[in-house]
Amino acid sequence: MKLFRISGGIHPKESKELSADRPIERLPLASVLRIPLQQHIGGPAVAVVDKGDAVKKGQILAVGRGMVSAPVHAPTSGRIVSIGRFVAPHASGLPGQTITMRPDGRDEWGELPAPIDAFGVDPAVIAERVAASGIVGMGGATFPSAVKLNLRNRHKLDTLVINAAECEPYLTCDDRLMRERTAEVVDGVRIMRHGLGVGRAIVAVEANKPAALAALRLAVAAGGFADVTVVEVPTRYPMGSEKHLVQTLTGQETPARALTADIGIVVHNVATAFAVYEAVRLGRPLIARIVTVSGGAITRPGNFEVPIGTPVSHLVEQCGGFRGTPERLLLGGPMMGQPLASTRASIVKGVNGVLALAAAEAPTGPIMPCIRCASCVAACPCGLAPFDMAARIRKEELDGAVRIGLLDCIACGSCAWVCPANIPLVQYFNYAKGKLTAEQRTKHKQEETKRLAKFRADRLEQQRKAKEEAMARMKAEREAKKRQAEAAARVEVEG
Ligand code: SF4
Ligand code: SF4
Prior knowledge:
The chain has 495 residues and is an alpha/beta fold.
């Protein structure tokens, strides 16, 4: 298959050797699981269990709310200890609504929905099962997967792309998944292709995963699956960015702020495909995921199948604890991962890695003035001028930054990685985007308040008019009756 070159991108040290050869392990259950109700983009789920309830593995704990949301299920059997706010797996460390459960050690499944005849049903049935199973984008985006499958209703689609690039350094969980559960992954890919209503699926794997590439190709050839093509893409960060992957595979550029669905392509992560296989073939909801635990400050790096809600501290403990004091603690990869405020936070559906980086792996230098070397421009895969955007943001000229492309920035971190002046460029961009979103929210709220106030004033005016009219009618009726009575009295007297 012919590939197309994308501009920009970088080659950071891969550091995948720390965990790439470690098979997926299951660890002893933590004594307590904390399951946040907001593990996805969209409305938080709403708890349907109470403190003290006994629950079975796979039982629904919280239902999705609204069109874009996802339910949450019990990762094992046990008892609900509390429902309340607890530290969220987020850089802010702010608390979020969380269900806390204590496993009973029996790991007993509840009643599960029956498996589906994957290729015999209407695509809508696949999307319904994916929605009911709480599956979200497991590459980190956490967008509810059923919403993406349903894009077939609004877009003319022809291709499903499975993002198996795993371009972030250190992470190897997708690599291990493809090598160890190959048949299930391929089946999941084909089910998603059917669910999306398209004729072909392309699985894109970076060249630095030869064993995964070989395993997938073998499984596809053995099954005679003409609808799936496995493609080796160059190892170049950020190959896993949706739009850049699509451009590499098809040569088609997705316009700024448009979706890849606008050019007929939907992208899903490879771990999502495995979750879809489990949901459709086994009736199992998304209650566990594979996580890479790695970095120079971890005693025993590896890949682990982790129940959702497992505290990071338990995972680290099972890996032999920290070696020294980590310089950086992250959820996800070193380029786009979230700094972890507390190891009490839990593993959620979108977490593919826990990294504890030693000082040598996370060098920090003094921030110096920009020397206009343009390295950041050359590295940017979106064709932006990061130094210029940062300068405008520093002067609080957010509109100016937007005019030169701030909203097209995918926060990949390539510019900051190459900057010899150690300027935290991505932090500037995230700060500015956050501020713009907050401003937009305030503006929206003000407009909504104005709209509601006008609506209320109009309603009161209508009520006032209706009341006046009713009173006028009643007065007219009274006068008419009075006239009638007077006329009747006159007739009696004259008679
Ligand atoms: S973080 Fe934004 S500006 Fe920097 S390289 Fe990535 S896309 Fe370009
Ligand atoms: S890489 Fe750093 S120093 Fe060079 S132009 Fe960009 S911001 Fe300035």
